[in-house]
Each structure stands twice: as structure tokens, then as C-alpha cells.
Design goal:
alpha/beta; Carbamate kinase; Archaeosine Trna-guanine Transglycosylase, Chain: A, domain 4; 2 domains; eight-stranded mixed sheet; 14 helices
Length: 365
């Protein structure tokens, strides 16, 4: 089994300002046991900024991007060196991979990253993955290691993604404010109600929160990957989750996982525009497996170019799908609602009769 273990900053620091090395040793021990039992593990590790801050003696710095990137640049080497040392105690090697959104959006770079992961795993090396915070700007960041771990799980064709955090899982209410909140043990459908239950990060140490974990779980389960949100402080939590014990909140994998290209669409470029569809187009997409034609598009918003990902909205404004659009936003504005055979007359050329081909479309319902 290929398992992705995402370790948040709050897990690695136990809520303090410095890395909790004693607990990191315990996490490594669990990973080593599974690795030696024949499983293949990938570790998505936060903590570079915390490591950098610790190395500098916890200075009082502005909370702006350049200073965060400075701390990440200082701390990333320290973090990897520490992981190398700890895994080395168990005779295991690690290999670092730093990723940005650009590595996942570009199809060739996506495939190259997948090949690198596969090669590391085939040689018994545990990949250590983090976002390249030292150089990533908001425009090229995945944004948090929860969503990065979901995309890594897709890259590696993993079967299980563990999102280990400082909370036991997802609750029916915020357990910090409501003593009657109950742990949700299993989730089969992620809907608007569930999203409202998810809150933000409160530790001040990381960039994620329960909301980003829910986003990550939704992405991964659509690719056929089981996801569990659980406490990284729980006893033997990594081994227990691999063995299928009921720990934390488990998100069932969708039975019919997306084929490879659609996994890349879902894991790669974030939507940069929206197309609102009429009822006929929605029916054709959902019931007939059709491609999207310009006649079914009522409105366009956002600035996007040919090949960019866009959201498809129904008449009620709900998001139905994500797809790669064959026409730019400006071109779409000129061909809204027309028949496909009139595209050339409207534009002076055409890029084919469909706006989004079925093979470039991922339904979200």
C-alpha cells in the first residue's frame, strides 16, 4: 500500500514555538515499522518556517511574505537534516521534493514529478515533500500542505492519505466552543453543510485549518483515495490507520475513481473563470455524458485563456464541474449561446465545435 502522511506544523511542534523532536522520533518509528512491513510511505511535512524561527532564536519579525520566505529558506535545510537523522536511526533514506503549483499545473512537469516519486518509492526511499515556500509567491503557491498532500497522493497513486493535525477529526461543531460537539467518524458525501462545520487554523503556526483539510479530502477521494483526518498525537496513530482502525474522521474513496487525465485536471490548475450554463446544457452534461457546446453557455466571468480551467455553474449558481476551456474568456463572450456552426462567423475562425470536451471535464456532483 502507498500511504501519504501529512504532518502539520501543529503536530511537529505540539503547539509550541519549536519542533518537538521527541514526538518526531515517535512518528518516524511508526513510519519505519510500516515501511519495513512492506508499505510505501510519503511524508508531506510542514515546519520549515517554524524551524527557521527556532534557529534564529524566535525573533519578532513582520508577518509579511519576504520574512516568511526568509524563515522558510533558513528552516527548510534544518528540517530536512532533522528528518534525515531521525529516519537514519532506522536505516531508512529520505529524498526531498519541493513543489509549487506550477509543477502540478503543467502536464509535463506533473508527469515528471510523478516519475520522480515513483522512482524514489521503488528504491525504498521515503519522499519528504513540502511546498517551495522560499520562492513561491501567492500566484504559484498551492496554498497549504493539506491540498498539496492530496495532489501528491494523486501523483503517487496512493491508496490512503492521512491528514494528521492537532484535532481528533471533524466534529459536528467546534469542540473548543461547544462541549456537546461529537466526532464525525465517517463521511461519504461532502456537501455545503459539512463545509460550514469546518473552521480555520487557530494555532498561528500553520497555514491550514479544517477547511483546507476538507478541500484536500474532497480532491483525493474523487481520485479513489481514502482520506483520514486524525490527531497526530494519538498513540500509534499511523499504524492504526493503515490497519483500518476507526480513528479520526474517515472519508470514503469514490468507487469509480477518475481516469489519469481527469485526476490531473482536478489536482492541477485551479479554476480561473466561470461559465454559467442553461438547464439544457446541464442535463446534457449530467445525463447524457455530452461535451459542452457554446449554445448552452449563458454567461462568462473571469479572465482566462485557452486551456485554462474554469468552473461550470448551473442556473442556480451551484458548481457542477471543472473543465479545460478551449476558448478564452474574450472568445467565449463573443460566442455565448450560438450554434457551433456559427463560431467561425462570430470569431473569424474556430477552435472546434465544443467549448469543453467531455475528456477535459470533471463532474463534481
Amino acid at each position: 500500500m502507498i500511504v501519504v502522511v501529512k504532518l502539520g506544523t501543529s503536530v511537529l511542534t505540539a503547539g509550541a514555538q519549536h519542533l518537538d523532536r521527541a514526538h518526531m522520533v515517535e512518528l518516524v518509528r511508526q513510519c519505519a515499522l510500516l515501511q519495513k512491513a512492506g508499505h510505501k510511505l510519503i511524508v508531506v511535512t510542514s515546519g520549515a518556517v517554524a524551524a527557521g524561527r527556532e534557529l534564529l532564536g524566535f525573533p519578532d519579525l513582520p508577518a509579511d511574505l519576504p520574512h516568511k520566505q526568509m524563515l522558510a529558506a533558513i528552516g527548510q535545510g534544518q528540517l530536512v537534516h532533522l528528518w534525515q537523522h531521525l529516519f537514519g536511526l532506522y536505516g531508512l533514506n529520505v529524498g526531498q521534493m519541493l513543489l509549487t503549483r506550477a509543477d502540478l499545473e503543467d502536464r509535463e512537469r506533473f508527469l515528471n514529478a510523478r516519475d520522480t516519486l515513483g522512482t524514489l518509492l521503488s528504491h525504498g526511499v521515503i519522499p519528504l515533500i513540502n511546498e517551495n515556500d522560499a520562492v513561491a509567491t501567492n500566484e504559484i503557491k498551492v496554498g497549504d500542505n493539506d491540498n498539496l498532500s492530496a495532489r501528491v497522493a494523486i501523483l503517487a497513486k496512493a491508496e490512503l492519505l492521512m491528514l494528521l493535525t492537532d484535532q481528533p477529526g471533524l466534529f459536528t461543531a467546534d469542540p473548543r466552543a461547544n462541549p456537546d460537539a461529537e466526532l464525525i467518524q465517517e463521511v461519504k458525501t461532502i456537501d455545503a453543510t459539512l463545509h460550514r462545520l469546518a473552521g480555520g487554523s487557530v494555532s498561528g503556526l500553520g497555514t491550514g485549518g479544517m477547511a483546507t483539510k476538507l478541500q484536500a479530502a474532497d480532491v483525493a477521494r474523487r481520485a479513489g483515495i481514502t482520506v483520514v483526518i486524525a490527531s497526530g498525537q494519538g498513540p500509534d496513530v499511523i499504524r492504526r490507520l493503515v490497519q483500518g482502525e476507526r480513528v479520526g474522521t474517515r472519508f470514503s474513496a469514490i468507487d469509480d475513481p477518475l481516469e489519469n487525465r481527469k485526476q490531473w485536471i482536478l489536482a492541477g490548475p485551479p479554476p480561473v473563470g466561470q461559465l454559467q450554463l442553461d438547464a439544457g446544457a446541464v442535463n446534457a452534461l449530467l445525463s447524457k455524458g455530452a461535451s459542452l457546446l457554446p449554445k448552452g453557455v449563458k454567461a462568462v466571468s473571469g479572465q482566462f485563456e485557452r486551456g485554462d480551467a474554469v468552473k461550470l455553474l448551473g442556473p442556480d449558481g451551484n458548481t457542477l464541474a471543472v473543465g479545460l476551456c478551449r476558448y478564452s474568456a474574450a472568445e467565449m463572450a463573443a460566442i455565448l449561446g450560438i450554434h457551433s456552426d456559427a463560431i467561425a462567423m462570430a470569431l473569424g475562425y474556430d477552435r472546434g465545435p465544443v467549448v469543453i470536451h467531455r475528456d477535459d471535464l470533471v463532474l463534481l456532483d
